[in-house]
Amino acid sequence: MSVSALVLGRRLMVTLLLVAPLSANAQGQTPQAFLEELYRPYRQKDFKGQPYWETSRYFAPDLAAEIDKDMAAASKRNEVPLLDGDPFIDAQDWEITDLTVASSVDGGSAKGAISFKNAGQPKTVTVFLVQTPKGWRIADIVSPNGSLRKLYKLP
Fold first, then answer.
1. Long-range pairs for 102-108: beta carbons < 8 A, 24 or more residues apart
2. Which strand ranges, in their side-by-side order, compose the sheet holding 96-106?
3. How far apart are CA 49 and CA 41, in angstroms?
4. CA 34 – CA 112 distance, rounded (Å)
5. Which of 24, 35, 61, 142 has the fewest CB atoms within 10 Å distance of its CB?
6. CB contact at 8 A, 96 and 45
7. How many CA atoms lie within 13 A of 154 on its CB side?
8. Is residue 118 within 8 Å of 124, Cβ to Cβ?
9. Residue ranges with strand state E in 71-152
């Protein structure tokens, strides 16, 4: 075996060792950890919001597909999509304080209760999660303003 092949083999092994824990962690992540990771940045004063348009990263496949479809159609029409604001906090602007995240698991589904103050006003959203091959994903977010599934006319 040549020296260059040996070096390439070692680099490949190191890369695999570094990547494997990341993908295993995503799939083995608890609903609480998924929600904590999602909401933790909102505690930062200058946080601009999660990139929710990267739908497969956050949403269950059926909801992700509808969001993607709507965003593409709205873009073609040069209009605002149905989802006009940050779905995780149900707002277009925010100043989040007193954030708490709690979750409960029931088999392949889970429910998260997210409470916080936005600009001093108390707010609560409920996040419904499902287990997918890629890990926990959001099946719905329900707030006083409605539900993502209802917005997209999903059952």
1. 102/32, 103/30, 103/31, 103/32, 103/35, 103/129, 105/30, 105/31
2. 96-106, 109-118, 121-132, 135-143, 146-147
3. 8
4. 10
5. 24
6. no
7. 18
8. no
9. 96-106, 109-118, 121-132, 135-143, 146-147
Contact 119, 50 (CB under 8 A): no
Helix (H) or strand (E) holding 61: helix 61-76
Residue 64's φ and ψ, nearest 5 degrees, are -60, -45
- In the structure encoding, which two tokens stand for residue 24, read together? 């295993």
Cα–Cα–Cα angle for 141, 145, 150, rounded to 5 degrees: 55
Rounded Cα distance between 132 and 109, Å, is: 10
The owner of tokens 């609903």 is 31
As a whole number of angstroms, the longest Cα–Cα distance in the chain is 67
pLDDT in tens, 90-111: 999 999 999 999 999 999 999 9
pLDDT in tens, the chain (155 residues): 544 444 344 443 433 333 333 333 445 799 999 999 999 999 998 899 999 999 999 999 999 999 999 999 999 999 999 999 999 999 999 999 999 999 999 999 999 999 999 999 999 999 999 999 999 999 999 999 999 999 999 99
